[in-house]
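Appendix B. Raw example, untouched.
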Amino acid sequence: MSQYRLNLFIPPDHARRLDELAVKKGVSKSSIVAAALASWLSPDAGDQREAAIARRLDRLTRQYERLERDQAILIETVALYVRYYLTVTTPVPEAHQDAVRAQGKARFTQFVEQLGRHLLRGHSLLRDLVEEIQPDTVRREADAAASVRQADGEAT
């Protein structure tokens, strides 16, 4: 099989990386450049890259939509809690301020410890709440994420 000789000028950084890759893989620099060129010139290479990018964009879109939904739920939850708290909390007389502060500090410490345990278990209270309200949505998201992971595994 005849070969065509080609002299190329590439940046020093590319040349260094090409040298390192050739040594690491135990192949010639020419074979690496030929494989890269074949991949670049392949008629379906662009389609493959475009499909991979589209899958990643779809996954990012779903993640963004979940974040947006979770943030909206969180904002509403905090707003409702603050409204409720401000509505039902009675002012504390000056004589009881120190006791109330101590009780608040103890409750906050307990809250932080409970939150830490919850996070260490890997559970999401927000996810649990959404699952209770919309179990089909959570199931569809999990199925979509699994199919994307499978497609990404096949593409590589």
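End of appendix B.
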